[in-house]
Amino acid sequence: MIRNEVLKSIVPVITDELVICNIGSPSQELFSLDDQPSNFYMLGTMGLCSSIGLGLALSQREKVIAIDGDGSVLTNLGTLPTIANNVADNFILLIIDNGSYGSTGDQPTYAGMKTSLAAVAEACGCDHVVECQAEDTAEELKKALAADQMTIIVCKCQSGNVKVPVITMNPVVIGDRFMKEVQKRNA
Amino acid sequence: MTFNISERIVDDMVAAGINFVTTVPCKQLAGVIDLVEKNDQIRHVPSNKEDEGMGLCAGSYMGGGKPCIIMQNTAIGVTVNTLSALIQFYQFPLPMLISYRGEVGEPVACQVEMALHTKPILQQMNIPTFHFHKKSDVEELPAILAYTQMCKKPTAILTDASFWRAA
Could you tell me if the ipTM is greater than 0.90? Predict the structure, then answer.
């Protein structure tokens, strides 16, 4: 399975959750598959998906799923100790780990070589870390949502992208639409 | 003026509704960071790098929080892309309380290098910039915090060695 198939498999699992989606192909693919006002699409700043997700989870009640990538987490590796030490039980970090920088031409990442992001997350002090194969991602996400505890899921999948258009929605509109949804759900 | 500057700053932040603060430490800011950590109206989330901190602040703001980042001016060199492509692009208000190292009174020569770039970069990025040099400059802080929310921009509050020495 490639990322787009993983996203397809988890769309039905995401019901009441807020989603922060990683820059580039992940956001474009999610936007094409299932655009929702409860999705925040990153249009810039590679690496900060998990940080935005944690900040959001710590500041309101609803559950937050940050859909991140291995390349992005490697870019902002300092995020994992921050997550580990600021526990938000309404936060799930889903790292779609295809071992490559998908948006820039599928160059290999170190996560596809000797580096295990799950082991790094555990070493950073994250309490609930699950590594799974792509086919099992939806099931693991369901379990993590039911557990009501902060969970890091590292989903190992194949490298590859599908052809989807870039997101042309104005960033202020993306943010405003998302914040109104957050307010509504926290009311 | 007999007030304690660090206390005054944190009191003003709380009065402005700031409830989420991320910090990357600097010696000059140690007193403020200590008070932020102790204040029960502020959630303090230390970050490992300033761009990470700005991501946390962006998330907090979208969750209804009122964030602030506390960092050194060297971080301006780290965060140009994040300021541009996240904070400015999505129009998130973000007050940045910055220790302005490398000004007169600085003991570490290397700090002077980034000090020389700090204001030109901020100016190039159209970031409203306020320079606290005298102790009384702190009186502007409540208005700056209100201004930041009003215009939904990042704002830079540069606090130099003379300001902290007066404290």
Answer: yes
